[in-house]
């Protein structure tokens, strides 16, 4: 299990054992199932958060109703009738509604954010493996090899000459830029939510107290709830061997008592809560760090040619524009620099680019970013999102009602891997889903350039 859920579950278990004793221990699977389902949702499972939480409160009502009416026998059909009164009678007060809003928003934002990290990483990895076109290879060979043919082995290519070559070679990649920037903006918005109102720590830290408050509301409303249920579902049969029937046992109030935040136990439960706070403080620092990296990665694809051509091992530099290889001789490079993107390469003087044939693989990555951006926008608004995961190692897909056909396209099947689990070391987990740095992709191109130089020599 993830560390934060494990600690929150342990805290709830410790506190409830101390507060409610055997009454809790005999019904603990209801609470354990809650954490299991939350974990399954977060890791990409096919879980509808709203339905899952409604089911939890319905099951808790059934168990509580039996506890406050021990002198009656309730069949499965009768208990199913009882659960239908959850929304009508509000036996737990306003706690279920508030908790549902907080849990769904926080978990949707967290899962979508981690999925976004995975998508960004995978798009960058896939695009970095796209092979250069024959026209690009010829242009690179001319830029790097011809100086040796002309007896100018120490003369490096002009900076602007390099830019036109790289803009031609990376024309399809530059077309990622618009959708990539929108994707980064959406990631930053969700990160802001995780730091603020959708912070999971603020939901999971006091979840034991909130559920305990709901149980006490049920106790206070027990007579009213019992009366209404008996009226709606019928008078149940007395339990075998009992002559009298009372709604609430004499020892109920002594076994179930209110639990206030200031009474948090200082033993195992208190320790686990402290660990939980430490984990989420670390997570908050990780989110802040990632936000800075996200900001730096904007315009990543359109700036690649400039980053590559700034490398001293590739070009002569801007200060040597009169003393560099311009593709023909040692002199200034005169042609204008092309704009970014495929359509702008129609008149590229250095690279033969067919602008009528966009790279299909890169177009798929543009669509992947577009789909992920729409999911992030939904998560920002607190709406559930649908991850359709068909990879073999994945655990499934999440479902919800937050997407409409015009917001979350259904014609595109996005393939991704399971969301990374939140571990105790938040920095390590987030580092595994980091974004492309200029250095990583730049050195891929630089290595290609240097390899061609060695072959030319």
Compose a concise summary of this entry.
This protein is mostly helical. The chain contains 20 helices and two strands. The longest helix is centred in the N-terminal third of the chain and has 34 residues, at 95-128.
Structure, described:
Among the domains are: 2-112 and 197-238 and 273-285, no CATH class; 131-193 and 295-381, no CATH class. It has helices at residues 3-20, 22-25, 28-42, 49-68, 76-83, 86-89, 95-128, 134-149, 159-169, 171-174, 177-195, 200-204, 207-220, 222-233, 252-255, 268-296, 304-309, 360-380, 426-431, 438-456, and strands at 72-73, 237-238. Helix 4 packs across helix 5, helix 8 packs antiparallel against helix 9 and helix 8 (134-149) crosses helix 20. The protein is mainly α and 457 residues long. Mean pLDDT is 74; it is low at 243-273, 387-434, 438-444 and 446-457. The longest helix has 34 residues, at 95-128. It has a two-stranded antiparallel ribbon. It contains 20 helices and two strands.
Which terms summarize this structure?
457 residues; mainly alpha; two-stranded antiparallel ribbon; 2 strands; membrane; 1% strand
What profile does the largest beta sheet have? 2 strands, antiparallel
Class derived from helix and strand content: mainly alpha
Order of helices and strands: HHHHEHHHHHHHHHHEHHHHHH
The general outline is rod-shaped
Name the average pLDDT.
74
Distance between the termini: 56 Å
Helix proportion? 55-70%
Strand order of the largest sheet: 1-2
DSSP E strands, number = 2
Radius of gyration: 31 Å
Number of helices: 20
> Strand fraction band?
under 5%
Low-confidence runs: 243-273, 387-434, 438-444, 446-457
């Amino acid at each position: 299990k993830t560390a934060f859920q494990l600690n929150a579950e342990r805290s709830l278990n410790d506190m409830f054992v101390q507060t409610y004793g055997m009454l809790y221990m005999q019904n603990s699977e209801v609470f354990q199932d809650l954490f299991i389902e939350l974990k399954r949702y977060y890791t990409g499972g096919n879980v509808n958060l709203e339905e899952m939480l409604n089911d939890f409160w319905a099951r808790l009502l059934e168990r509580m109703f039996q506890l406050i009416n021990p002198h009656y026998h309730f069949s499965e059909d009768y208990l199913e009738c009882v659960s239908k009164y959850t929304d009508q009678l509000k036996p737990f007060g306003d706690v279920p509604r508030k908790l549902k809003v907080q849990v769904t928003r926080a978990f949707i934002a967290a899962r979508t954010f981690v999925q976004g990290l995975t998508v960004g990483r995978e798009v960058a990895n896939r695009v970095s493996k796209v092979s250069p076109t024959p026209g690009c290879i010829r242009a690179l060979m001319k830029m790097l090899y011809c100086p040796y043919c002309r007896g100018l082995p120490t003369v490096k290519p002009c900076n602007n000459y390099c830019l036109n070559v790289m803009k031609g070679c990376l024309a399809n990649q530059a077309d990622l830029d618009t959708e990539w920037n929108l994707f980064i903006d959406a990631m930053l918005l969700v990160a802001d939510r995780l730091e603020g109102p959708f912070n999971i720590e603020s939901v999971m830290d006091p979840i034991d107290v909130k559920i305990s408050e709901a149980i006490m509301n049920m106790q206070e409303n027990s007579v009213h709830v019992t009366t209404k249920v008996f009226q709606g579902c019928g008078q149940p049969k007395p339990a075998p061997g009992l002559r009298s029937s009372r709604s609430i046992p004499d020892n109920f109030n002594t076994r179930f008592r209110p639990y206030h935040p200031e009474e948090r136990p200082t033993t195992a439960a208190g320790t686990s809560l402290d660990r939980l706070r430490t984990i989420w403080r670390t997570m908050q620092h990780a989110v802040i760090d990632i936000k800075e990296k996200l900001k730096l990665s904007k315009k990543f694809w359109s700036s690649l040619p400039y980053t590559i051509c700034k490398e001293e091992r590739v070009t002569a530099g801007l200060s040597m524009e009169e003393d560099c290889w311009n593709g023909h001789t040692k002199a200034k490079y005169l042609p204008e620099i092309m704009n970014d993107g495929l359509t702008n390469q129609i008149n590229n003087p250095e690279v033969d680019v067919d602008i009528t044939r966009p790279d299909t693989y890169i177009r798929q990555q543009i669509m992947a970013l577009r789909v992920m951006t729409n999911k992030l926008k939904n998560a920002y608004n607190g709406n559930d999102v649908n991850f359709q995961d068909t990879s073999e190692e994945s655990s499934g897909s999440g479902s919800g009602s937050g997407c409409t056909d015009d917001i979350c396209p259904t014609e595109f099947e996005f393939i991704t891997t399971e969301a990374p689990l939140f571990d105790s070391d938040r920095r390590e987990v987030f580092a595994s889903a980091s974004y492309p740095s200029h250095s990583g992709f730049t050195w891929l191109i630089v290595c290609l350039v240097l390899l061609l130089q060695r072959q030319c020599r």
